[in-house]
Amino acid sequence: MIKKRMIIPKEIKSIVEYLRSKGYEAYIVGGCVRDILRGSEPEDWDVATNAKPEEIQKVFPKSFYENRFLTVTVQTGSKNQKLREIEITTYRSEAKYTDKRHPDEVSFAKNLKEDLARRDFTVNAMALEIEDQGHKIIDLFKGEQDLAQKIIRTVGKPEQRFAEDALRMLRAVRFAVSLGESWQIEEKTCRAIKKNALWLQAISKERVRDELMKIIMSEQPSHGIDLLRKLGLLQYIIPELLEGYEVSQNKHHIYDCYEHSLRSLDYGAKRNFNKYVRLAALLHDVAKPRVKQGQGLDSTFYNHEVKGAKMAAQILSRLKFSKKDIEKIVRLVRYHLFYYNVGEVTESSVRRLVRQAGPENMEELLQVRMCDRIGSGVPKAEPYKLRHLKYLIEKASRDPLSVKMLKVTGKDVMSQLNIQPGPKIGQILDVLLGYVLEDPKKNTRKWLLEKMSQLGHCDIVTLEKMSQSARKTREELETKEDKMTKKKYWVT
What we know:
Blueprint: H1 10-21, E1 26-29, H2 31-38, E2 46-49, H3 53-59, E3 63-64, E4 71-75, E5 85-90, E6 92-94, E7 106-108, H4 112-117, E8 127-131, E9 134-138, H5 143-149, E10 151-152, H6 158-164, H7 167-178, E11 184-185, H8 187-196, H9 205-216, H10 221-230, H11 239-242, H12 257-270, H13 275-283, H14 288-291, H15 304-318, H16 323-334, H17 347-357, H18 362-375, H19 384-397, H20 410-417, H21 423-438, H22 445-455, H23 460-488
Parallel strand pairs: 2-5, 10-11
Antiparallel strand pairs: 1-2, 1-8, 3-4, 4-5, 6-7, 8-9
Helix pairs in contact: 7-9, 7-10, 10-12, 12-13, 12-18, 13-16, 13-18, 15-16, 17-19, 19-23, 21-23
């Protein structure tokens, strides 16, 4: 029996109860049962039934059936995104998998037991029966016991499960790192993965990519990557990472290339950085083993960021990442090694970095640098000089306070006032900018042209005084903004 405080959403209860009212069996199954027992909110909900797909559609007119796996999707109309569409699957059994990824044939199972027997891992092979007096867990393969002991174990013989779908080997790793700390893959399951890791080559790169990203976006991604290495799976996903295993670095690093990459990735997870930063952190030094010159503390890795960007593009393309994702991550890898010391780097060089890496990528580039620093074994992710760089980047990225901000130009002044080029044009634009800085709503072409006509009647002395006052106001505002930006990043 599950704990009373665990509440089944009304949308799920109504689906199960309605199927049963029509004379069919219906159970909540799979990962959502596992999550309920763990006290976690399920990401999605699945229902299994002995009703055939066409019968399910008759019971639930607001549904659709667009696959050959006996699954009907019911639309509940729920406001909760996770409960808006619920998959109901007819009990099914599957024949052999010739290609290690798709069943040659999907057929109806006789009962719930047969349906649960085809599932991947014991913790995912439990069912929940809704009853009036409480809810009953149906556990035919000791899933609750494995859940309590934090063990990933296949249902039945491991090799048979992996022969059915080789992606399950990768899913075993994903569950071991995403369900929480201290989870282990059972010994026989591990041996079967090591023996049959090459089967992963039969799986589409898109499916491999999706599982890999779930590992990378977990709370302990380095454990997942290293588990892939130990089980022999990593060589079929990102073999380039293995090139850095036990490849020592120079005096600036205390870890080898491989461990450095994993520690960099872990810091990205610790700070909850996005997928771009985590992938860039994992791949930023991927080229080091190929460009390494010399040995010991004085070894060098010249141009590893350039070579690494090319390798990252190849890796991500091979795993079928989108063009947009590839371009962004490659830029982060390419420019992660930017040089910066307070007082040595000019604003113009900072602007060049912003232009090359892309202003939209600067925050993430700095985050990759923080991951790189922690991965190198230094105590601070964001020292003073990195904060100072943030200040300069924001300053360089900010539009300057200039007459270019105005909705009118010098040509408009000459045309409106019918005058030739001269200092009067700049003075009028300075005054107009002063008005706009005081009230940005005045930066309209109509208002500026009207004010321009009035200024055209001012004598040269008055106009010069107004121009000087406007320039002084602009300088004071620039100084104030600069002080605020420095304060934001705790720099002087």
